[in-house]
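Recall the central idea of this unit: under ordinary conditions, the amino acid sequence of a chain determines the structure it adopts. In this exercise we apply that idea directly, starting from the sequence alone.
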Amino acid sequence: MHLQTIFFRTSTVAIKRRSRVPGVMITQFVDEIPEGMSTPDFTRKPIALTIQEGKLAFFKSMVSGVPKPNITWARNKGPLEDPVKYISRYDEIMEEYFLEIPNVTAEQADTYKCFAANEYGRAVCTATLNVIEGEKLIDLCPKRAAPEDFRKMLKRKVVRTKPPLKKKEGEIDPKFWEVLLSSPKKDYENVCMEYGVTDFRNQFTDYYTLWVVEKLENLKHIEVKADGSAEFELDIELKNPNSQVFLFKDGVMVPYSDDGSGKHNLNKIGKKYIFSINDLMPDDAGLYQVDVEDANCFSTDFKIIPVEFVVKIQEVKAKEREDAVFECVLSHPFPKIVWIGKKIPLEQGDKFDITVSEDHLIHSLKVKDCAQVDKGVYTAMAGIASCNAWLIVEADNDPNTRGKKTSHKFMLDMPDVKGLDLQCPPSFLLPLKIRTAPPGYECYMSCAVRGDPKPHVTWYHNNVSLNTNTNYLITNVCGVCTILILKIGPKDSGDYSVIADSPLGRAECSTKLTVRGSIAQSHHNQMLFFITGTICNYRNNL
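Accordingly, the structure predicted from this sequence is:
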């Protein structure tokens, strides 16, 4: 929706403007905005959350405006001054503003507001936080209220016309309930306005949630599974078995299938609802929500860190009672990966030893004291990337060691030391890959190089060296060479190459980086859209 003026005043305050984003109201502080300046607006507003008690709840938003707006948060029922309970922060890379509520409690269920303000105006939007106490929805309304009981929950306002209505102060027209209950839910607010009922939205949201949901429990947040899909689940007992269940991603409704053949799927077993996402891609990251009819029941945030396996785990052979070690190298630091053995997640303990290097690039899994039951496929998972390999356990036929712990025996047939030469020229184990990225996000590119003596590595962009450019973060750890562009833009498009030099030779690999769209072009289109809409409004007013 384009910006349009609702009403004007000759003073310097209270010029109300409608945002392009539904649910956002803008107040302009000045009559005329200087060229190149703008009032604040939300490009992404916070959305309603339903979170289990004790979990981390957070709202996030993105704003626009020149000069850069100042962001503040508020709630209806109290202040946000406690720095332990409420954490406000800004992510400079993603340009996102967060309000985090660690260990959320039932008392923090409320309507929260986000304000974006600069010297030319202020934008405001709201989002509701619902908290599930223990494993059940907070009992705001224990029993299904009859219309007579629900009327007491609403503030009343008499709408006077000429001639005045013949009814008592605060009384609601009896026809209101008949019209409301026979209208589509999308028209509830209009019906309330028509009959003079105010403060309806927030109270009805909680009431309606309890009206359609009998019980909500066993909430499990989204996680990546061994088969490369992501799942989250919850138990919902519906008051009406015919109620519709909707899935949303970042506030947009997502269609799903019930046979497992789609991108998004629902597997319903009794009252258990298992949602899955297949063929994971970076674009699948976001906030997923489950609604029953118009009631938000559950929210879970899915984060995907772009990472690749530079060196994958390899097949390992071990005799009984020996230890077997799997090892992999990642393209950029990852604090903890998931190890899976025969489709079961593995944990540190007596049987398995899970370690990671100080730079968080090299991850290892040791299977201790191998037995025949340990053989099978093992998988390493980092984000949405994975690799797998077999563990083959060979029988120990030596009667002297049967049933006893043995150690690895390494036998290396080495030639005469004088004739041994381990030097080799540079070569790439893993070359660069073609990349495409949206503007404003960070972008990783990596490759793996070997050589003895250790080669000197130089990065180039369009034949210009980047090794001394502070706009790029370049690392070389154990031969894994990585470049990080913190905030990608159109100027970063082009050819990238890596040259590895040593006294024994030179190796080179290259790739092309494409930036989808242009920030400048996007702003140009938005401005053109705004000017066109303003002209249309002006003509309509004439």
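The two ends are 21 Å apart (CA to CA).
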